[in-house]
């Protein structure tokens, strides 16, 4: 409702509307006629009729119980009949590409007055455009899909394909050549891992973990083996459609028999003439329910081989019900004597383990970037809530115990961000082979750090939000989602303990032979 069409009222005029059937309230200088709405109010009519609320300024009470978005929902926005004379609303939604002014709610490079050696103008342009895209296109879809558990709509997939978001999520490389990135905001030559970090960070801010996995996580991990090791004819057949969002691919490695212990897999392929015959099962396959193609790790004679399998006879998928939304498409995949041409082999026969391992650093980095960004979102939520929530007659933030929790939360997210930016800078300056040699262990340690601090922050946030932190709607909905889903980050792409161990083992391997105290 445009404010110029609204009447202005004095506080005294509003105060006259203070009874059942004639009930007004004020929230942040906006006057609402809730006379008829009172009986439909999800919080009940009685709470609106008490002396301190009916005909009064109920701003503090309102924001102690509702997210501001409630006021912008069309069915509630139309309850506004006017404004208070001489007052202006203070609380406004952020514009689609606006940066939050809440301290630590954004990484420091985005905060006014802060500088960073890592980001240039192209990153700033890119971030602004990406935030707008997330808020206008992706977040509404995320909220829908997270709730109904359905796959992302073809319309949104097409849009993201057109903007080359899917291609960019694979990182910098020749697959970006000649593409128009995010409507031309930057060139493929400019695109680096910090742009990619921005994509994953902006997505993480949706706070809808299942949806974020549904949003091409399978492509990010399932396509690189084809791009890096697949025969050109197979690439030509599959890659364009996948990058355009027309088809989905996923990575099928883990099994009920083998998770972090990849070598324990049992899915077996043998050759019959020009064909592979594959039998076995795969479990927890992200996007598997919807996928058109499967990048499958198989045991073969003398080793492991990675094979590209299209959805075909003998291959079936069924959804696995997990703690997060089925919009992620987490599947149990069965291969029953599935036949595919030998030309679908990715990399050398028997050398599949190096194909599998080559994928892991990038996957882990992507997971931790999304996870850290959501962790920061939670810090922002806790800062806001602890200021606006009154308990024992004062704001939560006036309790030392709450401030102590906030101190730990902020320190965790800031330390991880600084480490992440350092690692990303190294990625920008190393070949993938160098990264595997020099920073695979660091990425694993960073992932362990981000996921363990994320879960500590999720726990702290539940103490600050109380019952709301375990409620899927209302004030604590982002806390609830993060608390429920942050363990995923600590498992997917390598379990937290395994990550720590990998990091230390790599460090020990690199110890100089003559190192002594
Ligand atoms: C324009 C005015 C208001 C609108 C449109 C409104 C709308 C809503 C909605 C949609 C909910 C469901 C929960 C949510 O989505 O967050 C809710 C819950 C509630 N509302 Fe309101 N409300 C208004 C004013 C108030 C006021 C002034 C009070 C003051 C006491 C109040 C007390 C409550 C309570 C106690 C709940 C339940 C909260 C919970 O379950 O945690 N509401 N309201």
TrEMBL record:
<dbReference type="InterPro" id="IPR009100">
    <property type="entry name" value="AcylCoA_DH/oxidase_NM_dom_sf"/>
</dbReference>
<keyword id="KW-0285">Flavoprotein</keyword>
<dbReference type="InterPro" id="IPR036400">
    <property type="entry name" value="Cyt_B5-like_heme/steroid_sf"/>
</dbReference>
<dbReference type="InterPro" id="IPR001199">
    <property type="entry name" value="Cyt_B5-like_heme/steroid-bd"/>
</dbReference>
<dbReference type="InterPro" id="IPR036250">
    <property type="entry name" value="AcylCo_DH-like_C"/>
</dbReference>
<dbReference type="InterPro" id="IPR037069">
    <property type="entry name" value="AcylCoA_DH/ox_N_sf"/>
</dbReference>
<dbReference type="Pfam" id="PF00441">
    <property type="entry name" value="Acyl-CoA_dh_1"/>
</dbReference>
<keyword id="KW-0560">Oxidoreductase</keyword>
<dbReference type="Pfam" id="PF02771">
    <property type="entry name" value="Acyl-CoA_dh_N"/>
</dbReference>
<dbReference type="GO" id="GO:0033539">
    <property type="term" value="P:fatty acid beta-oxidation using acyl-CoA dehydrogenase"/>
</dbReference>
<dbReference type="InterPro" id="IPR009075">
    <property type="entry name" value="AcylCo_DH/oxidase_C"/>
</dbReference>
<dbReference type="InterPro" id="IPR046373">
    <property type="entry name" value="Acyl-CoA_Oxase/DH_mid-dom_sf"/>
</dbReference>
<dbReference type="Pfam" id="PF02770">
    <property type="entry name" value="Acyl-CoA_dh_M"/>
</dbReference>
<feature type="domain" description="Cytochrome b5 heme-binding">
    <location>
        <begin position="6"/>
        <end position="85"/>
    </location>
</feature>
<dbReference type="InterPro" id="IPR006091">
    <property type="entry name" value="Acyl-CoA_Oxase/DH_mid-dom"/>
</dbReference>
<comment type="similarity">
    <text>Belongs to the acyl-CoA dehydrogenase family.</text>
</comment>
<protein>
    <submittedName>
        <fullName>Acyl-CoA dehydrogenase</fullName>
    </submittedName>
</protein>
<dbReference type="GO" id="GO:0050660">
    <property type="term" value="F:flavin adenine dinucleotide binding"/>
</dbReference>
<dbReference type="InterPro" id="IPR006089">
    <property type="entry name" value="Acyl-CoA_DH_CS"/>
</dbReference>
<keyword id="KW-0274">FAD</keyword>
<dbReference type="GO" id="GO:0003995">
    <property type="term" value="F:acyl-CoA dehydrogenase activity"/>
</dbReference>
<dbReference type="Pfam" id="PF00173">
    <property type="entry name" value="Cyt-b5"/>
</dbReference>
<dbReference type="InterPro" id="IPR050741">
    <property type="entry name" value="Acyl-CoA_dehydrogenase"/>
</dbReference>
<dbReference type="InterPro" id="IPR013786">
    <property type="entry name" value="AcylCoA_DH/ox_N"/>
</dbReference>
<dbReference type="GO" id="GO:0005737">
    <property type="term" value="C:cytoplasm"/>
</dbReference>
């Amino acid at each position: 409702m445009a404010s110029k069409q609204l009447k202005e009222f004095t506080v005294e005029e509003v105060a006259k509307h203070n009874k059942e059937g004639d009930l007004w309230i004020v929230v942040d200088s906006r006057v609402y006629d809730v006379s008829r709405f009172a009986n439909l109010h999800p919080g009940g009519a009685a709470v609106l009729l008490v002396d301190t609320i009916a005909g009064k300024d109920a701003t503090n009470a309102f924001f102690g119980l509702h997210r501001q978005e409630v006021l912008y929902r069309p069915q509630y926005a139309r309850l506004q009949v006017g404004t208070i004379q001489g007052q202006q609303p203070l609380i406004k939604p952020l514009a689609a590409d606006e940066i939050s002014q809440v301290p630590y709610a954004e990484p420091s490079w985005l905060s006014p007055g802060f500088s960073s050696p890592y980001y240039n103008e192209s990153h700033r342009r890119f971030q602004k455009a990406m935030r707008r895209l997330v808020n206008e296109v992706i977040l509404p879809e995320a909220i829908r899909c997270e709730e109904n558990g359905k796959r992302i709509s073809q319309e949104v997939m097409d849009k993201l394909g057109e903007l080359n978001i899917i291609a960019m999520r694979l990182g910098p490389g020749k697959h970006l050549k000649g593409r128009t990135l995010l409507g031309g905001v930057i060139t493929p030559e400019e695109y680096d891992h910090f742009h990619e970090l921005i994509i994953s960070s902006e997505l993480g801010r949706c706070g809808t973990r299942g949806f974020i996995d549904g949003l091409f996580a399978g492509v990010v991990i399932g396509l690189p083996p084809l791009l890096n090791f697949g025969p050109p004819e197979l690439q030509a057949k599959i890659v364009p459609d996948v990058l355009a969002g027309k088809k989905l691919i996923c990575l099928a490695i883990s099994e009920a028999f083998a998770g972090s212990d990849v070598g324990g897999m049992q899915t077996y392929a043998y050759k019959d003439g020009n064909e592979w015959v594959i039998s076995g099962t795969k479990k927890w396959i992200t996007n598997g329910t919807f996928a058109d193609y499967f990048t499958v790790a198989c045991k073969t004679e003398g080793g492991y081989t990675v094979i590209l399998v299209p959805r075909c006879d003998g291959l079936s998928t069924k959804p696995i019900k997990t703690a997060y939304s089925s919009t992620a498409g987490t599947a149990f995949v069965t291969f029953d004597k599935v036949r595919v041409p030998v030309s679908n082999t990715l990399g050398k026969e028997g050398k599949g383990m190096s194909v599998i391992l080559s994928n892991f650093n990038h996957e882990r980095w992507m997971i931790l970037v999304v996870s850290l960004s959501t962790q920061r979102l939670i810090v922002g939520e806790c800062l806001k809530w602890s200021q606006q929530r009154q308990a024992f007659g004062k704001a939560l933030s006036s309790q030392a115990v709450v401030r102590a929790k906030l101190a730990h939360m902020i320190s965790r997210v800031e330390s991880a961000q600084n480490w992440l930016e350092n690692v990303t800078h190294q990625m920008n300056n190393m070949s993938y082979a160098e990264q595997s040699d020099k920073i695979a262990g660091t990425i694993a340690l960073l992932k362990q750090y981000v996921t363990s601090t994320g879960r500590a922050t999720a726990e702290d946030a539940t103490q600050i939000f109380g019952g709301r932190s375990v409620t899927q709607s209302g004030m604590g909905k982002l806390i609830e989602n993060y608390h429920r889903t942050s363990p995923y980050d600590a498992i997917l792409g390598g379990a937290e303990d395994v990550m720590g161990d990998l990091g230390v083992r790599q460090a020990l391997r690199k110890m100089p032979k003559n190192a002594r105290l």
